User: Fold this.
Amino acid sequence: MRKSLVILMAAGPLLAADTEPTPKQVAFFESKVRPILANNCYQCHSEKEQKSRGGLHLDTREGVLHGGESGPAVVPGKPGASLLLKAVRHLDKKLRMPQKQPKLPPSQITILENWIKMGAPDPRKRELPSLITRDIDIEKGREFWAFQPVNKPAIPKARGTWARTDLDRLVQARHKEKGLLPAKDSPPATLLRRMHFDLTGLPPTPEQIQAFLTDHGKNSGAAVEKAVDRLLDSSHFGERWGRHWLDVARYAESTGMERNCTYTQAWRYRDYVIRSFNEDKPFDQFIREQVAGDLLAAENTEKQAEHLVATGFLALGPKSLNSRDVLQFRADVVDEQIDTIGRAFLGMTIGCARCHDHKFDPIPTADYYALTGIFMSTKLLILGNVASYIERPLPVSGALEKKVKEAAANLKVLEKELAGLKSEEKKLRGQNSAGAVAVKSLPGIVVDDPAADKAGDWTDSTSNKPYLGKGYIHDGDTSKGVKFVTFKPRQ
Assistant:
């Protein structure tokens, strides 16, 4: 993810050789770095396969840091001093890697460089043979508490007066178990301020504070309910909470990566998310629209357009548009979509199962590629010199449809006029058959007609070559007499 990459690169001190990487760093290594090393380096530099050209092993953390005959392959935090980066950039003929294959794509070299900059976090360790050969128990993984059905717990009896709801009573019971006491109620003004920041991200105005204090003095419960309803009805509620979802959906207005192309219609998805929060849209419907909105039935064209915009969830995110390998390109796009869906809707890193059965969550590789088969049918990008997005017009109806048709007809007329003007321009400029503009000497002095005081024999231009249109004067390339123009400053 583009944002998570920025966070990783700025995250604290560089890793020492024995420092354990964070979960985010592990995810970056497993999804980005390990595939590059496995696909391009292990065939010659693998301790497990007993291949050590130049004494170098790249399939363990220790092997990367220790290096081979030429020294450490990676110096954490120092890309310029890391032999691995010099090798993949082909800066040294003796060290160039891979030797018998084309140079790595720029996107993969950038990934390795960013990995080294963040301290080369690497979760791989030398494992005991018994651990290397063990199988991953998928069924046992499904017994983890997070995958169990949600059950309604027994509600304990309340003690005292502060517990008013079932949630309060559950918290109170745990307080008693841990020997904790509840905090005192906040002053009314502080409570209002917290509600405002929680629900809209904005502070209350002095008038809102005074009104709340007045209502609170009459009936505290009713005052709180009234304030909460007002904040939930505010358009700022969707703006505040929609931002959280936009972070999950890796919202950005460009692709990032090597070619940072603009998502010109990204704002439509942003507004869709804000409206969904403000309309209190059911979350299951929110999910369906973003994953399969183009396949959902709609009662009118407005809803159909909304469903299509929702699928921007799949189109957003970092995309490498420079790939030349069609199959690799499609697989990488689908992998990014599956990984985002797993994180957004399941809180799981499904992308790990692209290369192996998931080591922590019950996701076998077979399930990953079953999902891949589904998302391969999604048409998103057209591969070319630089990949481009497939654009689909949004449906319109009624008066708006009429306006769209009229605008399209007017556009055709203007395009035809523009083509004619361009053709005339080429003729006036004296374009030759080879397409190059012929260079002609100007007729002496040529200036914009200043509509000011002029003296001498000046001639008004009437589409004279090689300049176009009217509004110019020239001296005819003559030297007789005195000619001058007095320009008046613009007001």
